[in-house]
Amino acid sequence: MKKQIGLLIPMIIGMMLITAFGIPQDKTVVIEAGSEQFTLKTRVETVRELLDETDLILAEYDYVTPGPEDMIENGMTITIRSATPVWLQADGAEERLMTTENTVQGLLQSAGIQLGEYDQVEPAMMTLLKPETRVVVTRVQKEYYYETVEIPPQQITRFTDALPVDETRLVQEGEAGLTLARRARITKDGQPAGEELVSTEVLRPAMDHVEEQGRERLLITGDGDLIRYKEVYTMTATAYDAGYYSTGKNPGDPGYGITRSGTRVRPGVVAVDPRVIPLGSTLYVESLGRSSSYGVSYAEDTGGAIRGNRIDLYYESRSEALRFGRQSVRVYVLEDE
């Protein structure tokens, strides 16, 4: 039993010495270098000692994290980023830099480049850097100013049937308006680079200059014919036939089927108020409702109920007249040929 105790004493003393004097223990470390990654065990104390131990050679601008003087901890990951050569052009100078940044934004931050509100950067800020990427910073300045701008009135011509052909009359005198424009003079790297319109505010709207001009009165019929007319009316139209219920006459009676003008009634004859449309006028009756247009017709008749803007259209049968009923029409008084 005494012999066994004697053997334990050196072991206990050894463990006490390890604890007291800090004999190094193995630590597991992961090293990432670009796309490569490997794991190793080490007893060194600092990152620098580990790099020396593994014979890893760093270029002047390579970046290591944690830093070379940081202490090694078990399970630590050490990242080595190799520097990339890029070009940076800014503030009138161009230089070739070695950088471990991944993006254009990171390059500018590491280079201490402060961007103004309107400065431009090419390529875009989040572009990934590649060897020999050229990054250009353009300093943009804007000088704002205001000016008033006159708005010319629009020239508007309205064609009307109320005037003779080509005759004009003033409807409204035009008046110029006024706008307040905010503009910016732009310089890029100290050189003029044009102007831009920032905003506008209407101080006084322009008033259109309006004239009316007489036009030739032309009607395009439903058949595609072009007809000149001199007057046009919107009227209420009814229909009649030659029988007793429309004229009070029967076949054989004196004047049966004879119009006020002395002509024989027939399709195309209409009754009008002579105070509105003179007897003998040639008309074109255009439907504004459900039926087809009555077409070219002749003002040869009158009627006791036809007064003012009323017109009566002749049909050969009472059933046709009743079917027409009462409708709105547009009546064109055609020019004499």
TrEMBL record:
Sorted alphabetically, which Pfam families does this protein's record hold? 3D, DUF348, G5
The cross-references to Gene3D superfamilies, in alphabetical order and at most eight, read: Resuscitation-promoting factor rpfb, RlpA-like domain
SMART domains noted in UniProt: G5
Q: Name one GO molecular function term.
A: hydrolase activity, hydrolyzing O-glycosyl compounds
- Gene Ontology CC: outer membrane
- Where is the G5 domain positioned along the sequence? 137-217
The answer to whether the entry has keyword Coiled coil is: no
**Keyword Chaperone attributed:** no
Q: Where are the transmembrane segments?
A: none
Q: Name one GO biological process term.
A: peptidoglycan turnover
Q: Which domain of life is it from?
A: Bacteria
Q: Which residues form the signal peptide?
A: none
- Report the InterPro entries cross-referenced here: 3D_dom, 3D_YorM, DUF348, G5_dom, Resuscitation_pf_RpfB, RlpA-like_sf
What keywords are assigned to this protein? Signal
Q: Which PANTHER family match?
A: CELL WALL-BINDING PROTEIN YOCH, RESUSCITATION-PROMOTING FACTOR RPFB
Provide the protein name: G5 domain-containing protein
Q: Which organism is it from?
A: Anoxynatronum buryatiense
